Amino acid sequence: MQNHTAESCSKARMAIRDTLDVVGGKWKLILISVLRSGKKGFNELSREAVISPRILSKELQELEANGLVSRKVCDTKPVTVQYELTPYSETLTEVLMAMEQWGLQHRDKIIKGL
Prior knowledge:
The chain is of the alpha+beta class. The chain has one domain: Arc Repressor Mutant, subunit A (Orthogonal Bundle), CATH 1.10.10.10. Helix content is about 60%, strand content about 10%. The two termini are about 30 Å apart.
């Protein structure tokens, strides 16, 4: 069993806060999950995630700024933009899998009654 000190707890809280700053909120992990199946255009992402274009634009900018999503402007008429996950986004795989497992377990527990 690991000994917890005030310093180690403080560092842990800071790391959790940093993580939530990058992937927290209602949409970021959903968008990452949608993009795991491959490149998507803006409108396709908006439809699949059921998110308004204004919020989608903001969330994608933040994900791009944090190196999790890349944006490619395609030379088409009209101009289209494709979004895809970066290799760095793979570092979230374990987090997403753990959240999925916990969510399934929690939903089962709630449906069966606490």
